[in-house]
User: Which sequence fits this backbone?
């Protein structure tokens, strides 16, 4: 059953655990070893630059374009209602190069465009995710990775760590609203603790 959350911003429910969950990462690209779900329009956008992608691929990546994506499936957490997974080839997302870098991001940077222009939203958001209409933590994926969040004793919360990603998702106004909610939520939590 979908969880109930009190705050909604831009039609997204907000899981307040993002305000207290501690997170840090010295990224090795391991999070890309399982591929990612793209929205069908993102997959189309990627295929539109397939020639460029092929120019960037190294010897560890699959040049058969027909093998880059899985079959589409219905999923309401995607804007179009259709999700398409990237294939995992030789233990990594088809777009991950042998140095642990995302080819889609490399191309955007080299073109002088925004670094996330071609990257799927769920890749941008991780370690956050959208599940059943709620912005939340992708615990399931974090838990199966060895190098992701190895030292959760850090003082940095996932909310602080992912500020850039959250601004990308919600826009500046949406992010300000989230920040306000974070402050109110933490005050309430502190009051509760004092009263225990
Ligand atoms: S699309 Fe890029 S960021 Fe996303 S899983 Fe694949 S390699 Fe990683």
Assistant:
């Amino acid at each position: 059953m979908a969880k109930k959350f009190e705050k909604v911003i831009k039609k997204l429910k907000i899981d307040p655990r993002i305000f207290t969950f501690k997170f840090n990462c010295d990224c090795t690209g391991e999070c890309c070893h399982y591929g990612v779900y793209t929205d069908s329009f993102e997959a189309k956008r990627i295929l539109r630059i397939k020639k460029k992608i092929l120019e960037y691929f190294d010897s560890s990546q699959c040049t058969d374009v027909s093998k880059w994506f899985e079959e589409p499936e219905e999923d309401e957490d995607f804007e179009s209602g259709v999700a398409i997974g990237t294939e995992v080839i030789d233990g990594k997302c088809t777009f991950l190069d042998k140095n642990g870098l995302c080819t889609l991001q490399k191309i955007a940077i080299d073109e002088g465009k925004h670094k996330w222009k071609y990257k799927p939203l769920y890749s941008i958001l991780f370690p956050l995710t959208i599940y059943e209409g709620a912005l939340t933590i992708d615990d399931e994926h974090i838990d199966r990775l060895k190098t992701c969040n190895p030292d959760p004793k850090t003082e940095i919360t996932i909310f602080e760590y992912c500020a850039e990603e959250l601004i990308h998702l919600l826009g500046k106004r949406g992010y300000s609203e989230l920040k306000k909610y974070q402050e109110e939520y933490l005050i309430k939590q502190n009051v509760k603790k004092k009263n225990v």
User: Anything to note?
Assistant: The pocket of iron/sulfur cluster is lined by residues 32, 35-36, 86, 93, 95-96, 102, 104, 119-120, 123 (CB under 6 Å). The CA atoms of residues 62 and 89 lie 7 Å apart. The chain is about 35% helix and 15% strand.
